[in-house]
Amino acid sequence: MFKKILIANRGEIALRIIRTCKELGIKTVAVYSEADRDSLHVIFADEAVCIGPSSSKDSYLKIANIMSAAQITGAEAIHPGYGFLAENADFSEICSDSGIKFIGPSPDMINRMGDKALAKATMSKVGVPVVPGSDGAVHSVDEAKRIAAEIGYPVMLKASAGGGGKGMRIVGSEDLLEKAYQTASSEAEASFGNPELYLEKFIENPRHVEIQVMGDQKGNVYHYYERDCSIQRRHQKLIEEAPSAFITEEVRNKMGEAAVLGASSVNYEGAGTIEFLVDKYMNFYFIEMNTRIQVEHPVTEMVQNLDLIKQQILVAAGLEVENKPRKPVGHSFEFRINAEDPDFNFRPSPGRIEYLHFPGGFGVRIDSHVYNDYVIPPFYDSLIAKLIVWGTDRQHAIARAKRAFEEFSIEGIKTTVPFHMKVLENEDFINSNYDTSFIDKLLKK
Q1: Is the dihedral of CA 273, 279, 281, 284 positive or negative?
Q2: Which of 159, 199, 385, 411 is the most exposed place for a label (fewest CB within 10 A)?
Q3: CB under 8 Å to 443, separation ≥6 — which residues?
Q4: Using one digit for the tens of pLDDT, what is the confidence trace for 284-299?
Q5: What residue ranges define each of the domains in the chain, with the CATH number in brackets?
């Protein structure tokens, strides 16, 4: 087992990893930008190293600075968390070349599955259903127009590298394609350092359901069932739940088998997520694989009663997966608390937290790096906390979430707390009658 792990990330996920490391008796190294000097992950790590100015490109995306921090502190492994360099094959390779274990997949696995266009081709080859579209990246507007004409509009352009809704555009007709292509490509390059896009048929009003997988170094791949991530805005998830109240047991099993088949085809190591779109007829289509831990991993932890970060670390150390999958028990929701103003098109709301009280009680979990008087910097993602609840069934979990939000108090900034309370009162949400267009419809009412 590792004696010291560096966490190449910030915020709640960095603190989340530190907590598991402490329970395993592993020393931790936090890295931070100048803007994050007062963040909790810096305070609770055993050591902390400043790696640059406030902007991500000069700090959390600066591989040389992170590797220097690992070397001077004697870290044996690096956990990348999610976002930033978590799906960067070059970073994984540099870690390996430096004799430091990257807690995640190998460069080859990231290239084959982290690159969405290549992952789609890999999945198709082994028989996993995929959305019709380009076989790989499209290299020009003319090529995109030709493929779109073949499969029919609407289509979706997606960044080959990365995720989180960046470099993604829905295109309804040919006359809109060129501008969308240029905008998405520029956004992809700015976000991930890779301007490549691929194109696929846009499936209207689907559910977004993903399967959590874990592979070890002995060739075993397991799946921990599904999460429904259909409540999203601009392709960014806001509410996730496990299990899905939409799919049938037959579809659940088929999706799990498909996910394991796809991950096994590349001898996948570590935590990953196979993401599917499910249409109203329960046909499911592979859309991408995230070769990292997900923001929404806690809902799986709650219904599986396991620590996925611990599983990652055990696998990286060459040990066996400790907890084999079991049927989900109960129901769990995760609500992302963002520093955004829902009344003004969810615009960012950085600033000082003047008062903060988190909810508690049985079945309520808060993952957060913020505290009273903490100043939320304007440089990063707006996620400041995650409220995760567990109940014996879906209705119980909804009731518990309502109770928790009644206790949730935060002043000084705007957050998505009032929006979540509104969702919890919505009849369509209560009855699980929703798809990926739910938020757009709710905001129009």
Answers
A1: negative
A2: 411
A3: none
A4: 999 899 999 999 999 9
A5: 4-103 (3.40.50.20), 132-201 (3.30.1490.20), 207-444 (3.30.470.20)
